[in-house]
Amino acid sequence: MPDTPAIKIDVVYLARLREAFGVGSERVEPPQGVATARALREWLAARGGVWASELAPGRAVRMAVNHDLAGPEAPLRAGDEVAFFPPVTGG
Question: Could you tell me where the DSSP H helices lie in the chain?
């Protein structure tokens, strides 16, 4: 049985996350078990350092999948764009 090819996901970081990570976007190939927005966040946080602190479970970070606000259980598919950003307050 051949290995399942890795999926590619475009990840976008906005506002303070872009500043903290020093990158606005990247294309990633997460391991096969990363199938939800939450799992992607956890996988990225596992990089350690600033990634772990900014994407920690207690940190306020919103997610959007293909430009639609998404909850942590939103499924991911090859070619999706996932954005991570802090909540925005208006006034």
Answer: 16-21, 37-45, 49-54
What pTM does this model have? 0.91
Closest C-alpha to 20, from 61, 76, 57:
61
CA atoms of 81 and 91, how far apart (whole Å): 29
Determine the structural domain holding residue 27 and report its residue range. Answer: 9-85
Q: Is the dihedral of CA 54, 60, 63, 67 positive or negative?
A: negative
26-70 residue pLDDT tens: 999 999 999 999 999 999 999 999 999 999 999 999 999 999 999
**Amino acid letter for position 58:** G
pLDDT tens digit string along 18-33?
Answer: 999 999 999 999 999 9
What's the rounded Cα separation, in Å, for the pair 32 and 8? 11
The total number of structural domains that make up the chain: 1
